[in-house]
Amino acid sequence: MTMVSVRFFAQLREAVGVEGLEIEAMDLDTVLATLAERCSADVYAQLRADNVRIAVNQDLVTGNPVLSSGDEVAFLPPVTGG
């Protein structure tokens, strides 16, 4: 069983309603499928917005990386600067 920690930051944490979840997932697609089941369509759309970045163990990722037990998957909202 591959358990990963999923974390949400800033407005994404507020939208989901929790700071993080522990879920069973072998890859990023499985994480996304699980979140689609657990979250409302509106919240899931926010997580999948084009400007939201996903990091695995603090490294930004694209595609469908394979996950190992204990990995952290983080959903990072857009950052504004001034």
Main sheet: strand order? 2-1-5-3-4
Radius of gyration: 12 Å
**Average predicted confidence as pLDDT:** 94
- What does the main sheet amount to? 5 strands, mixed
Oligomeric nature of the chains: single chain
pLDDT under 50 segments (min length 5)?
Answer: none
Secondary structure layout plus pairing:
Layout: E1 3-8, H1 11-16, E2 20-24, H2 28-38, H3 41-47, E3 53-56, E4 59-60, E5 72-76
Parallel strand pairs: 1-5
Antiparallel strand pairs: 1-2, 3-4, 3-5
Write a structural description.
By secondary structure, the chain is α+β, with helices and mostly antiparallel strands. The chain is 29% helix and 27% strand. The chain is built from 3 helices and 5 strands, in the order E-H-E-H-H-E-E-E. It has helices spanning 11-16, 28-38, 41-47, and strands spanning 3-8, 20-24, 53-56, 59-60, 72-76. A 5-stranded mixed sheet has the order 2-1-5-3-4. The longest helix is centred in the middle third of the chain and has 11 residues, at 28-38. The radius of gyration is 12 Å and the shape is globular. The N and C termini lie far apart (44 Å). The mean pLDDT is 94.
Question: What does this entry show, briefly?
Answer:
The chain is of the alpha+beta class and 82 residues long. It is 29% helix and 27% strand.
List keywords for this structure.
3 helices; 5 strands; 27% strand; 82 residues; five-stranded mixed sheet; 29% helix; alpha+beta
